[in-house]
Write a structure and sequence with these properties.
34% helix, imidazoleglycerol-phosphate dehydratase activity, 4 helices, 10 strands, IGPD_sf, cytoplasm, 190 residues, lyase, four-stranded mixed beta sheet, alpha+beta, Ribosomal Protein S5, domain 2
Length: 190
Amino acid sequence: MASYERKTKETEIRMELNKGTGESSIATGVGFLDHMLTLFAFHSGLEIDVEVNGDTQVDDHHTTEDTGIVLGKLLREVMGDKSDIRRYGTSYVPMDETLTRTVIDISGRPYLSFNAEISREKVGSFDTELTEEFFRGLVINAGLTVHMDLIRGGNAHHEIESFFKSFARALREAMQPGDGRLASTKGLLA
């Protein structure tokens, strides 16, 4: 288990992350983000316990981005030395009319390619552009190379949900035990 507390003038975050399929407890103050993190935890095989107090009276930006940052830091810790993981993961996820693809390399080199035009600017009160901000914070702080593509769109809720699910499933695959050796001819994942 890994835990982290982050306090800024915009957010206060307390989060614990553990490998496992137990119950998660998610309270960010942003309903749509809570929904996305709940399904992310389920599909990734991770347990998330998070509580966020953010400046949501301004908007959801700081809460969403900072939650991604903290999740990325904890994910890096949970992955450990990466000495026996598959390293690569790919997942296609359909949600009715929507189809997304996420490809992950647990490389130690942060890079995000996010190719999507979300069909609406908001889902409820959630600004859909925050989806990319969340994943950018997570990817940079976890040290992942990630390519995410919206192949077929439709409903904005489905588009974003399929991204969270496809990322989670690709991550779960990449974190699976490998063949007993470091998955790099360089001898280092960094």
